[in-house]
């Protein structure tokens, strides 16, 4: 889209408590969209980095100091008054207790039970992304065996796993249908989301929460399949761009590190991962050779979380 006005760079903080509640504030009188609920933040000033701007805004508006913030999605949005580029950060640790220093209202909210309205229109995709957990598991019955896979899944669900992809390339027909059905039933008993690799019809038939498209499917589609959650595998800038264009809910990008399952693919490395997603408007999971302890680093690189096919099923 062509921008008639210059881009206004804005930082916005998704301040998340350990109980997953996040903070919304109401826009003060006198500003465009006064009374609308937003994430605390504001315009970057000349010479400031995004993080410096975030730090300043949170001190000015809420009286808190950031201790840990992760860069997250970016999003360009055109309002009648301006075109803004929003730099979202997830702030997970801070000092001080937030209070409205500019007489704005504050409210701690959850994605499942949002009780304030109206919200700034640019922020809806961000709320959607907040519903996605930071760990994305990928099933691996072909290596573990089907019964062992189900057993490991049960354990992982008990330990808090909330999101997984059924990806069983060596199974088809009734065998895949049976296993997928077993997995979905177990996951749904724990309110975990399940997407199925590639097969949109199977996902609908079994009542899964959506699909995970291969990069080849992603590149050949002209619109997003009509399912609740739709993700895709990406390996480069072109595929990321297509995922944004089609309005995917999330992507995985990799392989970040060399991996046993895809020996032919050259690993991106963390630097390239981070550079590729710097301006991405979607939540991006890092994938490829990762273990659970890589999560913090992936978040620092701008990732939404990590996807795992092996480490997630190993006993800890
Ligand atoms: N702070 C904030 N701004 C947002 C969000 N979403 C969103 O579209 N914006 C837009 O980004 C711009 C931020 O401008 P602002 O008016 O809050 O900036 P500011 O605090 O520096 O105020 P100022 O007008 O006094 O300079 C507005 O156009 C606002 O509509 C959000 O979640 N938080």
From TrEMBL:
Source organism, top-level taxon: Bacteria
Ranges of residues in domain Nudix hydrolase: 6-134
EC numbers, comma separated: 3.6.1.55
Keyword field contains Metal-binding: yes
Gene3D superfamilies tied to this protein: Aldolase class I (3.20.20.70), Nucleoside Triphosphate Pyrophosphohydrolase (3.90.79.10)
Pfam families: NUDIX (PF00293), TMP-TENI (PF02581)
Keyword Manganese: no
Cofactor or coenzyme needed: Mg(2+)
Annotated transmembrane regions: none
UniProt keywords, alphabetically: DNA damage, DNA repair, DNA replication, Hydrolase, Magnesium, Metal-binding, Mutator protein
UniProt record, GO biological process: DNA repair; DNA replication; thiamine biosynthetic process
Molecular functions per Gene Ontology: 8-oxo-7,8-dihydrodeoxyguanosine triphosphate pyrophosphatase activity; 8-oxo-7,8-dihydroguanosine triphosphate pyrophosphatase activity; 8-oxo-dGDP phosphatase activity; 8-oxo-GDP phosphatase activity; metal ion binding
PROSITE patterns registered for this protein in UniProt: NUDIX (PS51462), NUDIX_BOX (PS00893)
Reactions catalysed: 8-oxo-GTP + H2O = 8-oxo-GMP + diphosphate + H(+); 8-oxo-dGTP + H2O = 8-oxo-dGMP + diphosphate + H(+)
Similarity section: Belongs to the Nudix hydrolase family.
Name of the protein described by the UniProt record: 8-oxo-dGTP diphosphatase
The species this protein was found in: Nitrosomonas communis
